[in-house]
Amino acid sequence: MYRAMAAYVLMLVLAGAALCAILALGSRLTAPNDLAGVWVIAPSAPGAESTLRGSFLFKQSGRFAMLYLDDREPVALTLHGRTAGDDATLARLYFEGQAATLTATGAPGGDDYEFQLTGPIAGLFRAHRTWRTYPPAPTASATQP
Amino acid sequence: MPTGDLLLVLLLQIGLIMALSRIMGWLCSRLRQPQVMGEMIAGIMLGPSLFGLLAPRLWSAVFPEASINILNILSQVGVIFFLFLIGLDLDPKLIRSRGHEAVIISHASIIAPFLLGAVLVLLVYPQLFNDAPAMRFSAVALFIGASMSITAFPVLARILTERNLHKSKVGAVAITCAAVDDITAWCMLAVVVGVARARGVSGGLITSLLAGVYVAVMYLLIRPLLRRCQGYFDRSGRVSQHLLAGIILLVLASAYATERIGIHALFGAFLMGAIMPKGTRFVRALTEKIEDFTVVFLLPIFFAYTGLRTQIGVLNSPLLWTYALLFIAVASLGKLGGSAIAARLVGLQWREAIAIGTLMNTRGLMELVILNVGLNLGVITVAVFAMMVIMAIVTTALTTPVLHWVYPASMEWEKRADQARVKAFTVLVPVSLPESAGPLVRLAQSLAPLSDAPRQIIALYLRRPSDRIYRTDLDEAEVPIGQGPLASVIAGLPVEPIAFTSRDIPSDIARVARIRQADIILMGYHKPVFGQAILGGTVHRVLTGSDNDVAIFVNRGYESHKPILVPYLGGKHDRLALELAGSIARSNSAAITVLHVVPPDRATADKTLHAQSVVQRTFADPKTSAAVQFKVIHDPSPAVAVVRESSEYGLVVIGVEEQWGLESQLFGWRQQWIANQCPVSMLIVRKHARLGLPPDPQEDSAAGEPKITSTDAASVAPPAA
Fold first, then answer.
1. Which of A63, B15, B505, B607 would be a feasible disulfide site paired with A79, CB 3.0-4.6 Å?
2. Partner-chain residue, chosen from A31, A59, A140, that has the shortest CB–CB distance to B382
3. pTM of this structure
4. What does the alpha-carbon distance between residue B513 and residue B184 come to, in Å, rounded to a whole number?
5. 8 A C-beta contact, residue B199 and residue B209
6. pLDDT digits over B614-660, tens only?
7. Which residue ranges form the domains of chain B, and what is each CATH number?
8. Residue B114 and residue A15: Cβ atoms within 8 Å?
9. Burial of residue A100, with CB atoms counted within 10 A of its CB: 0-12 exposed, 13-18 middle, 19 or more buried
């Protein structure tokens, strides 16, 4: 009885210690910048390279993303790298798909990014995020568009 | 979208959801899967993963974005009341009665998957999660750990009762562990939600403090109030609408309070149910009031809403599917492995330990509830949500087949049979109605071949599982024989009662008969004779599917002292009829008339002599003697002759020979004419090859001296055709 109790207490203590270790290790990890949400493409300035208009949906789960632009076929992309932008406060993310690439540059956690698309759909444009997938609105109406 | 259109769309959606849920639930139950599996799959089918993929335009028309929020609200309300029902169903006695081993296994079954889930997050956090506000590593690790630790208590209990394992050691330990897991899981969820929503350390402290105050209020103020509600119910004998409204208000207030505190509305609903006084008629009545609408109407909407959010299409690369498999493997390893190892360490056999682990790996609906909370909070991404939904479905679907493989129900039966086995003439009496049990048991007592031979009567009560798919039904699965309406019938008789729920009653009757090595199965027949096949339905399946001798008792006011008529043509079933008639006659000091009907055109002295010889041999042993009269009738229609002759007897014991119209086409009315027309009670018997018969008298000429009086009734005029 005493041994069983001791083993049980030991199990709890070890589990607590293991969880603390995991949380400590994990706190050093960083997840890819969050770009998930609905983005509205800013009107192109005179001389800008993009003719893209309207809005697009960016579904992102970590390194894996899908770009839904108008009624076109969605583009599957995978994050391949992250570097600092020209300004140290900016981050530049490189996504690659089978026939397309996307470079997104902006402040981590921000809602204004510059995107450069190559492939069947090409263009350089700025966009503003109007809806974030994570977290959804406080009312928890987490409908995915 | 105009309100009128929205209402039309909503009605269409709900109709579609309910219909598909029921169909898929029924299909899954036919495949011996929990019905909840079908409802989960129906939800996925209605979402973008199938319906939206196959017919995107139609799908968008049926589930327009404007309507999704209404489904969301309905599903949230449904889950709140479902969690209240789960709390109501939770009986603390279960946990208190099982001792330390269940607590150790239970906690191991939480700790192992929790830690393994957190370790998995270490690997996948940079791959599958975003740097979003609520997706901090700590929140993600705690959430994934908690969601991997979930066990679906109602699904597990349902599997156990359907497999009749709920009273075995494996079942008892698993149910206790699942109950502990349930409480722990919802408490963990409250913690995880608190962590995910907390804004800084001070925010977390305030949430913890308020949560403590809330729990204290629930136990110190609300619980006594609920006892008074129970007292009111006991006095009035029903859940009035005022009382129901009061309870619903308390549930809503509790859910509101926990949502405001920051530990989620679900915890409030669960705790409200958990503190309700247990083991009372009040809880049962309340459950029945709330359950049907919640389970039939609201929960399918929750499944559909979950399906609408599950986008299996986002798993669009082999790497993502590899991660999905990793989630399934880690969840199973943690839950199954952790529980099994802990169970082994506390002294269970490996097979039992793995069976417990398999049961604990059932996640079902509970997993979907917690995953939706995670997605709402923004703690998990859509890809992880899809992976975890797949994990929930796979682990739930695997439970029944793996359990069947690891720990077949027959093992438990054989264990019980070994304990109960005695060398005795064994009669298995399946009982479906209390009023039929008395005559059957009394008849069973007289079936032993020798009056002083040890005999054993097993009264088998099988009830079909109720359609209450989310309630444990452990109470209802308890044995009603010996406690319920049959108690007075079997009191004082040497009857061993066995009772369990059965999806397939004829197969289970045959299975119990085989395992308990019953010499004969004695069944009753209860349906109206007119227009019904006596040897149809369950009776037919037992007759054709059992390895044992079977006797069907058609009770038409049986009086045991009256003489017995045994129509005899010479087949193996007729010979069994002779033996049984002899036993019954001896037990009741009744006379027997063996009726040998010979069509005039086929009358031969040899046949008659042969029949007489068999009868002589059957009753040759002085110990088994009975007053027997051998009567020969020349009649072109044996069945008509038997019906005509039978009116003077108390019982007709007859084999299912083809000539009596009882052998073939068991569903046909014409073939059962004799059974329908016979005015007195009947015992229709079928011999199976397993048991030995007395040697054929033609082969053994040294038959004993007959004590049979012979009557040639050739003068009896055959009835008009």
1. A63
2. A59
3. 0.73
4. 42
5. no
6. 777 777 766 555 677 888 888 877 778 888 888 888 888 888 776 66
7. 82-411 (1.20.1530.20), 422-555 (3.40.50.620), 556-721 (3.40.50.620)
8. yes
9. middle
